[in-house]
UniProtKB/TrEMBL annotation:
Originating organism: Capitella teleta
Subcellular location, record wording: Peroxisome
Keyword Flavoprotein: yes
Keyword line: FAD, Fatty acid metabolism, Flavoprotein, Lipid metabolism, Oxidoreductase, Peroxisome
GO molecular function per UniProt: acyl-CoA oxidase activity; FAD binding; fatty acid binding
GO cellular component terms attached to this protein's record: peroxisome
The protein's name: Acyl-CoA oxidase C-terminal domain-containing protein
SUPFAM superfamilies: Acyl-CoA dehydrogenase C-terminal domain-like, Acyl-CoA dehydrogenase NM domain-like
Length: 370
């Protein structure tokens, strides 16, 4: 294997083994249960292990960042600080822009995963069947994809930021990368998990209409018109686009619009055009992935904001708020093109966000860069 070589793997084969009925996975379904309901019960068993995998991905991500940041605060290269020594590589803008947003992101995923863990605990202690909590299933599936993808991306950046030292086995980044690589496959492929997130969001959305196509169409049309009016009004108002509140509103706007439009697209394809449901779903997979990631980003930022508010130590709260703002700004920076297309922000506001993310003020006040 390319990683996790401390874990033994093998192949099990069974030859004419009889399984008692009470031990079969299919003991749960009843005769009139649909294939979808049966599948939902089966994958609900993976909720707890997906939460555990999130923490398993967050651990090496934090360790990799600690190694890279400590190295950057010792390694000197080029320049002159005035006392004859060269510049710390952490002083370079590009180095800060590579590492600090990743540190902010792993904090966000930590708080979001803790929230998911609490929801799981509440369901287990309250004896709520996990397959009935679609909201938690969507959150956990999305977080598993987000945290494991971030782990791989962050560890690669940490490796590069340590130069040749990062390639040395003794400095651990190489082994962390190898072991984290398979996390995107464990407990479900990440791209497939994003489909589960979208399906659960669609199920929650459609449940409010009670199966009425007319209600769904009217609601979609009216809310889309309202969203366009709101986005137009936002462009006319003076807003603080570099505030966390603005970012939360923007992420909520994106999620809601993507969800309504995806529901409308699928309804048009399946009910009106009589397309095969699988083919219709396949034609919308890019839409599905965008919706799922928007949902996870919004939840992660919300839980980061709540964690800042709960922080009891004044000095720690200030630092957490700085990282929360950085995470929000980098999310918004990545959404600028889409928000411009939807007329949610102006080109001037987009440029302001770019300048905020690019300039050193966002990084130099952080204690970890000193």
């Amino acid at each position: 294997k390319s990683g996790l070589n401390g874990v033994d793997n093998g192949i099990l084969s069974f030859d004419h083994v009889r399984i008692p009925r009470e031990n079969l996975l299919s003991k749960y379904p009843v005769a009139n249960m649909s294939d979808g309901a049966r599948f939902n019960i089966t994958i609900a068993a993976l909720v707890a292990t997906r939460v555990a995998l999130c923490f398993q991905a967050i651990g090496p991500t934090k360790l990799g960042l600690e190694i890279a940041i400590k190295y950057a605060l010792q390694r000197r290269q080029f320049g002159n600080t005035g006392d004859g020594s060269e510049q710390l590589i952490m002083d370079y803008q590009t180095h800060q822009m590579r590492l600090m947003p990743k540190l902010a992101t792993v904090l966000a995923t930590t708080f979001a995963t803790r929230y998911a863990c609490q929801l799981l605990n509440d369901d287990v202690c309250g004896k709520v069947p996990l397959h009935q909590d679609r909201q938690m299933q969507a959150l956990v599936a999305g977080l598993k994809a987000y945290t494991t993808w971030e782990a791989i991306d962050t560890l690669q950046i940490c490796r590069e930021c340590c130069g040749g030292q990062g390639f040395m086995e003794v400095n651990r980044l190489a082994s962390l990368k190898r072991d984290a690589d398979v996390f995107v496959t464990f407990e479900g492929d990440n791209t497939v998990l994003l489909q589960q997130v979208a399906k659960d969001l669609l199920a929650q959305y459609s449940s409010q209409f009670g199966g009425s196509k007319l209600k769904a169409v009217i609601h979609t049309l009216s809310t889309n018109i309202k969203a366009k009016l709101q986005s137009g009004l936002k462009m006319l108002r003076n807003q603080n686009v570099t505030s966390i509140a603005y970012v939360l509103n923007a992420l909520e706007f994106k999620q809601d619009l993507l969800l309504r439009n995806l529901a409308a697209r699928l309804m048009d394809k399946v009910r009106d055009k009589r397309e095969n449901p699988l083919s219709a779903w396949n034609d919308c997979l890019d839409h599905v992935s965008a919706l799922s990631l928007a949902y996870v980003h919004q939840i992660s930022l919300k839980k980061f904001v709540e964690a800042v508010k709960r922080c009891p130590e004044k000095d720690d709260k200030v630092v957490l708020h700085q990282f929360c703002l950085m995470y929000a700004m980098h999310l918004l920076h990545g959404e600028r093109a889409w928000l411009l297309e939807q007329r949610y922000m102006t080109p001037i506001e987009s440029k302001l966000i770019r300048d905020t993310v690019s300039h050193g003020e966002l990084y130099m006040t952080l204690p970890v860069t000193k």
